[in-house]
């Protein structure tokens, strides 16, 4: 019986937005939903059998099913392909596939009849490709299969150019005049450069720079084949079958198969077939889930002759159709003698899952530094998603021995990793470790860092920045955005020595006994050589009041760590002033801001203080790598693709900027809407100006500064120029 076998799960009604019972505890199984408070979820909750469980996306649905916290869900074919390439439990099974009157999409290659039985015979021939910039169910990887076969047949050539240019160059050298329409990269400037340099791949396009976007790409590639008298075209099986209904076409062209063989127009051979959308469940409840759907989905189930359709009660059909996205579609159960295949086996039986290890090119990888098990897990899903999409270089996830960004920054300096998303709390540390920005995560205006200096409102001894000299400071973290903002302002006002370029020493000489968490970290020794660490730790305290010695680590055990901690330090009279980020502190009217124009704010608290008073308004984080990395251009091109396909795209297999496995802020902050590569938003320009002021500081005694490249010049060159 269904009721006897469902899981007992204790869930508050408010969590799922349902009102199915007045009881505090109810027994039911759960179905994935991105809108657990929706009308459909409320209706399903009334069944007393199934209720919604909130999931950000299909990947989280799969992970929750794996943990048996959710029991049923719908995923896309792309999400299924992604899951099959990672470490997913065999307990996630395919209950059924979702079908419609449209057959699954399949790619095919059509060639002229004079083409022989191998890929070598295509050399010098003309190609018509559908391009990549269209709303297609096909990934780059699928549409690049022919191109990859061509490149595999040639001898390896790893010139000192990006992997993308290597790919384009080899295609240009292999094929004759062709048409590969649409963008070749999301970087517009580099796209134009490539199309100018390898213009033969645009010769057959109506636009000489192949900037056209085909309205019907798979039909238009066949039109190109006919009108330009070309030799090869990539299209879909459906379009090919329509094409071959014309006798002249069937006599002139044939299929080329994935193994290089050729077949007549009446014997199609597909390269890749897209996976259908699937209904998945946890193995332990798959039978019950099937019974529930049979009972309630009615006309949205494909029935065979041995299965009796139950139409006795389908009042939950409409909400289930909504939750499983079954509009004009049906579920076909995939049961075999009472058993259901695991998702991994189903996908591997259906198609070839791309392998990251065998996809590496020229031994070049993008080593992403992580600092927690869960972040590494998300990185591995990104790695597989990128390979599935055909993005190079292949991502490698390198988990640091430490457990924070600082340890990753050190790994980048040592060369054991390539990139990490670094908080602006480590702005100065990143510079001292000779790291530079390659991209900026965009920041919602609510999460921008507005940096303020605050004092106690009743302290009349502080009226200007010069009054701060020698006083006790509460700084959220050594080397962070607040530290840099304070020193930059005092240098601008001529209060601190503008010939001294060590921002650690400048802070040290400006303040008295203070609390500057993190100053003793062994990972930032290159930033604290000229600092009296005891002085900077003297006012710090541990949360545990039984400890008598000052606690100076940059972590939550330090009562004065971070901006709110710095405010607490000030309010407890352990400091005379604090430098804080407005978004990270509670509004307190017992504080008064000291504005960047060297005057006090007209009102107490920070809530209504104008941003013009702030020392800086800054980006929250940056994607950094080593200044001298030989992989800068490759990595940035990959980030462009991540931003497009795993960020901007509405229907995406992987959500790079969202929660993962119900955990926030992994790899990127969840408040990140996307990446910016030009650094041209005001808060990014402010951040660059702040860092550039550090790098531009001129003194004959600072070898590290003399050897540093201007941040602005470095970033602009990195954005606009690539090694060809």
TrEMBL record:
The keyword Signal applies. Residues 1-22 form the signal peptide. It comes from the Eukaryota. Residues 17-359, 366-696 form the Transferrin-like domain. It holds the Pfam family Transferrin. Keywords: Signal. The keyword Cell membrane does not apply. InterPro entries: Transferrin-like_dom. PANTHER family: TRANSFERRIN (PTHR11485), TRANSFERRIN 2 (PTHR11485:SF29). This is Transferrin-like Protein. It comes from Tribolium castaneum. The gene is AUGUSTUS-3.0.2_31973.
């Amino acid at each position: 019986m269904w009721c006897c076998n469902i899981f007992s799960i204790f869930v508050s009604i408010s969590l799922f937005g349902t009102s199915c019972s007045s009881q505090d505890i109810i027994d039911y199984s759960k179905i994935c939903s991105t809108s657990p408070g929706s009308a459909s979820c409320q209706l399903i909750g009334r069944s007393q059998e199934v209720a919604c469980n909130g999931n950000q996306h299909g990947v989280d649905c799969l992970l929750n099913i794996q943990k048996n916290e959710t029991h049923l869900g719908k995923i896309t074919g792309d999400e299924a392909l992604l899951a099959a390439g990672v470490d997913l439990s065999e307990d996630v099974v395919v209950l059924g596939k979702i079908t419609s009157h449209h057959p699954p999409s399949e790619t095919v290659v059509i060639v002229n009849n004079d083409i022989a039985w191998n890929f070598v015979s295509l050399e010098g021939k003309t190609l018509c490709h559908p391009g990549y910039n269209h709303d297609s169910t096909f990934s780059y990887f699928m549409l690049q299969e022919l191109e990859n076969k061509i490149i595999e047949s040639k001898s390896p050539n790893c010139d000192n150019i990006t992997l993308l240019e290597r790919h384009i160059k080899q295609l240009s050298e292999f094929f004759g005049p062709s048409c590969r329409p649409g963008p070749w990269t999301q970087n517009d400037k580099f796209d134009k450069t490539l199309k100018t340099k390898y213009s033969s791949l645009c010769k057959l396009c109506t636009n000489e720079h192949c900037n056209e976007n085909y309205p019907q790409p798979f039909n238009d590639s066949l039109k190109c084949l006919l009108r330009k008298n070309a030799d090869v075209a990539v299209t879909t099986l459906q379009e090919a079958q329509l094409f071959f209904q014309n006798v002249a076409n069937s006599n002139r062209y044939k299929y080329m198969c994935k193994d290089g063989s050729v077949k007549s127009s009446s014997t199609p051979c597909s390269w890749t077939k897209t996976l259908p959308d699937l209904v998945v469940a946890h193995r332990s409840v798959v039978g019950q889930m099937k019974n529930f759907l049979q009972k309630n989905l009615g006309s949205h189930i494909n029935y065979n002759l041995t299965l009796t359709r139950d139409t006795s009660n389908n009042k939950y059909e409409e909400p289930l159709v909504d939750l499983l996205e079954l509009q004009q579609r049906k579920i076909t159960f995939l049961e075999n003698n009472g058993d259901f295949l695991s998702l991994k086996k189903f996908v591997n039986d259906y198609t070839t899952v791309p392998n990251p290890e065998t996809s590496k090119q020229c031994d070049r990888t993008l080593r992403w530094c992580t600092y927690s098990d869960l972040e590494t897990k998300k990185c591995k899903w990104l790695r597989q998603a990128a390979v599935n999409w055909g993005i190079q270089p292949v991502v490698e996830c390198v988990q640091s021995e430490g457990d924070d960004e600082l340890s990753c920054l050190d790994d980048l300096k040592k060369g054991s990793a390539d990139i990490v998303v670094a908080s602006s709390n480590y702005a100065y540390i990143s510079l001292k470790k000779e790291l530079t920005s390659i991209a900026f995560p965009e920041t919602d205006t609510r999460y921008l860092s507005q940096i303020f200096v605050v004092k106690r409102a009743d302290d009349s001894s502080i009226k200007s920045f010069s009054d701060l000299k020698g006083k006790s400071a509460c700084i959220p973290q050594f080397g962070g955005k607040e530290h840099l903002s304070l020193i930059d302002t005092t240098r601008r006002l001529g209060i601190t020595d503008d010939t001294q370029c060590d921002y650690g020493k400048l802070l040290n000489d400006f303040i008295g006994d203070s609390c500057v968490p993190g100053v003793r970290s062994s990972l930032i020794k290159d930033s604290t050589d000229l600092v009296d660490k005891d002085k900077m730790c003297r006012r710090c305290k541990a949360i545990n009041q039984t400890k008598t010695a000052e606690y100076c680590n940059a972590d939550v055990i330090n009562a004065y760590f971070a901006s709110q901690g710095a405010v607490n330090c000030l309010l407890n009279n352990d400091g005379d002033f604090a430098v804080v980020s407005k978004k990270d502190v509670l509004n307190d009217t017992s504080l008064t801001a000291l504005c960047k124009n060297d005057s006090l704010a007209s009102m107490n608290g920070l809530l209504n203080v104008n941003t013009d008073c702030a020392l800086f308004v800054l980006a929250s984080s940056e994607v950094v790598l080593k200044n001298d990395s030989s992989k800068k251009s490759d990595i940035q091109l990959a980030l462009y693709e991540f931003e497009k396909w795993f960020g901007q795209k509405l229907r995406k297999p992987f959500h790079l900027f969202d929660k993962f496995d119900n955990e926030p802020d992994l790899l990127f902050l969840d408040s990140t809407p996307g990446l910016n590569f030009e650094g041209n938003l005001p808060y990014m320009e402010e951040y660059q100006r702040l860092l550039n002021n550090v790098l531009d500081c001129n003194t004959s005694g600072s070898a590290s500064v003399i050897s540093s490249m201007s941040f602005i010049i470095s970033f602009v060159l990195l954005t606009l120029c690539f090694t060809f």
